[in-house]
């Protein structure tokens, strides 16, 4: 059985993503990366967890009423998506393969869209 290996990211909607990111930096110490509106911090050796503020009108989360989305790290994205489909879980047919690895999306029984990430080795 495929399992999540960690949290890859926490994403939230914001009226002003840059201002909110700066607030989190000032008050919680989340270090912002230069030239971006998101912060990243090391969760454990070799694994990175990203915090990011998205524009309030983003469609990346799916439904407009979903205020946040979690990104879960997995070791085999294809196997995880296959496993979810076999369990009649809604899975987005789109898969992205980019510089940071492979990404896929699914939805829990309450309609919360989440992201699955298989980092590049």
Report on the structure:
The chain is α/β, with parallel strands linked by helices. The protein has one domain (6-119): Roll (2,3-Dihydroxybiphenyl 1,2-Dioxygenase, domain 1), CATH 3.10.180.10. Helices cover 18% and strands 40% of the residues. The protein has 2 helices and 7 strands, in the order E-H-E-E-E-H-E-E-E. It has a 7-stranded mixed sheet. Strand 5 (96-98) and strand 6 form a beta hairpin. The longest helix is centred in the N-terminal third of the chain and has 12 residues, at 17-28. The relative contact order is 0.22. Mean pLDDT is 85; it is low at 41-45.
Main attributes of the structure:
121 residues, alpha/beta, 7-stranded mixed β-sheet
CATH topology: 2,3-Dihydroxybiphenyl 1,2-Dioxygenase, domain 1
Q: Quick check: average pLDDT? A: 85
- In total, the number of domains comes to 1
Q: Which class of secondary structure composition applies to the elements?
A: alpha/beta
Query: What order do the helices and strands follow?
Result: EHEEEHEEE
Largest sheet, in brief, is:
7 strands, mixed
- Beta percentage is 35-45%
Protein name: VOC family protein
Pfam families: Glyoxalase_6
Domain VOC: 6-119
InterPro entries: Anthracycline_SecMetBiosynth, Glyas_Bleomycin-R_OHBP_Dase, Glyoxalase_6, VOC_core
Tell me the layout of helices and strands.
Blueprint: E1 6-14, H1 17-28, E2 38-44, E3 47-55, E4 68-73, H2 77-86, E5 96-98, E6 101-107, E7 113-119
Parallel strand pairs: 1-3, 4-7
Antiparallel strand pairs: 1-4, 2-3, 5-6, 6-7
């Amino acid at each position: 059985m495929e399992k999540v290996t960690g949290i890859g990211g926490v994403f939230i909607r914001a009226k002003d993503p840059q201002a909110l990111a700066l607030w989190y930096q000032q008050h919680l110490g989340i270090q912002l990366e230069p030239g971006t509106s998101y912060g990243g911090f090391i969760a454990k050796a070799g694994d990175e967890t990203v915090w990011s503020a998205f524009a309030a009108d983003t469609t990346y989360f799916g439904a407009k009423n979903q205020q946040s989305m979690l990104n879960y790290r997995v070791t085999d994205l294809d196997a995880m998506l296959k496993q979810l489909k076999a369990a009649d879980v809604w899975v987005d047919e789109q898969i992205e393969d980019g510089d940071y690895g492979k990404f896929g999306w699914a939805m829990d029984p309450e309609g919360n869209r989440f992201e699955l990430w298989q980092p590049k080795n």
